[in-house]
Write a structure and sequence with these properties.
The protein contains 4 helices and 7 strands, in the order βαβαβββαβαβ. It is an alpha+beta fold.
Length: 162
DNA sequence: GCCAACGTTGGC
DNA sequence: GCCAACGTTGGC
C-alpha cells in the first residue's frame, strides 16, 4: 500500500538556486544537495518519499516567499557532494561506506505568478503553527496537509502549471 | 550590516 | 556531560 502523501518546505536562497533555475534545469529536475543539518538530513534520509509535495521557499530574499511547488521524484540517497573535495559542501567526515549526508531529487511542478510572501503567510491564522513561522532555521521542514491545502488556496488563480 | 536564534565544537 | 566560544542562518 502506498504511503500517504506528505508535504515539505525546502528553503533555497534564490541568489544560489531559485525556482526559475529549477524550471530551467534538464527535465526540470535537480538533486537537492548540500543539506548539512542533522534534523534536515533525517527527514531527507527517512521520510521524504517519491510523490511528496514540496513548497519551494526563497530565503534571504526580498521579500522572503514561497515561490512555487515541486514534487519529489527520488527518495533519500547519499549526497555525493560530501565526498568531493572540490565541492563547497565537502565533508571529510562523511564516509562513502556509511554516508552522513543525504539528498533527494525534486522536479518543478509550478511557479507562482505571484509568490506568497512571508508577511502574507504571517497574516494567516491557519498557518500560525507552521514551522517556518516559528523561528525555525530548518532548511527541510514538514508541512501539514492542512497547511498545504491552505497555501494552495492562497495561490489559486495566480499560478501556471508546468 | 545587524543581530537573535540556534547548532556545533572542543576544553575541561 | 557541561558550557563557553564560535559559526551559520536568515529576517529585518
Amino acid at each position: 500500500m502506498a504511503a500517504r502523501k506528505q508535504y515539505w518546505l525546502f528553503k533555497s536562497e534564490p541568489e544560489v538556486f531559485s525556482i526559475h533555475d529549477l524550471e530551467k534545469a534538464p527535465k526540470k529536475t535537480v538533486f537537492w544537495d548540500g543539506v548539512r543539518n542533522y534534523q534536515a538530513r533525517n527527514s531527507l534520509r527517512d521520510q521524504v518519499k517519491v510523490g511528496d509535495g514540496v513548497l519551494f521557499y526563497h530565503s534571504n530574499a526580498d521579500p522572503p516567499a514561497i515561490a512555487g511547488i515541486a514534487e519529489v521524484v527520488k527518495g533519500g540517497y547519499p549526497d555525493q557532494t560530501a565526498f568531493d573535495k572540490s565541492d563547497h559542501h565537502y565533508d571529510p567526515k562523511s564516509d562513502p561506506k556509511n554516508p552522513t549526508w543525504y539528498m533527494v531529487d525534486v522536479r518543478h511542478a509550478e511557479t507562482f505568478v505571484k509568490p506568497i510572501t512571508l508577511p502574507e503567510l504571517k497574516k494567516e491564522r491557519a498557518l500560525k503553527e507552521m514551522v517556518l513561522l516559528n523561528n525555525s532555521r530548518l532548511s527541510i521542514q514538514p508541512v501539514t496537509e492542512q497547511e498545504w491545502t491552505h497555501i494552495a488556496k492562497m495561490r489559486k488563480q495566480t499560478a501556471t502549471r508546468s
